[in-house]
Structures are given as C-alpha cells and as structure tokens.
Design goal:
The chain is 0% helix and 46% strand. With 106 residues, it is mainly beta. It is globular and about 40 Å long.
C-alpha cells in the first residue's frame, strides 16, 4: 500500500450476483457495492442524496441503480444523479478485486 491509499475489504465476490447491490457498513460509513450485469464491481455512498434511504435496497438496471423510495436514479459507475428527485451526485469510490474479495478505496 502506498501513501494515501486505504483499501478496505467490502465483501466477498460471491456476496453479490450480477445486477445486484449490497449494503456495506465500514466503521460509521455506509456504502453500496454494485455488481453490474456484466460482473464488474462499483461502489459509492450508500444513502440516496434525496433522503437517507439505503440504495442497496434499490433495483440495478443497466448502469443505473434506482432508489427504492421515490425512484430517483444514479449511475453507479460515477455516482452521478440521473433522475429526480435525487438531484445531488453521490461520491463514488475505486474498487478492486483480489482473490475472492472486493476492496473499496476509502
Ligand atoms: S429517497 Fe431516494 S429518491 Fe427520494
């Protein structure tokens, strides 16, 4: 690990199937880890920016995750909000896979 990197284990690869999302709590922070339909992993802040709802309870569709409460959407690759009422982008995080673990750079 080099200076400034803080990779933490989020989950195992098998914990998330393609086109699914998982809530991951690390310390006091909550993330959502998404596995895209083609099997890649992504991570961003876990609460919707509209209200404090867990995005991991939402639906993954293509490159989008839809909030379960008011159906705002985010591009999980970048955290960019894509549909109202979720109009504030979320922070996204680098992800890497080593062996059978998914890591988030926090
Ligand atoms: S709480 Fe997510 S869109 Fe309203």
């Amino acid at each position: 690990m080099t200076s400034g990197e803080n990779w933490v284990v989020a989950c195992t690869v098998d914990a998330i199937q393609p086109a699914e999302a998982l809530r991951v709590d690390i310390g006091s922070r909550t993330f959502v880890v998404v596995r895209s339909p083609d099997g890649q992993f992504f991570a961003m802040d876990g609460h919707c920016s509209h209200e404090k709802v867990h995005l991991a309870d939402g639906i993954v569709d293509g490159n989008i995750i839809e909030c379960p409460k008011h159906f705002g959407t985010f591009d999980y690759r970048s955290g960019e909000s894509r549909a109202l009422p979720a109009c504030i982008d979320l922070k996204s995080y680098q992800v890497k896979v080593e062996a059978d673990s998914v890591y988030i750079r926090v």
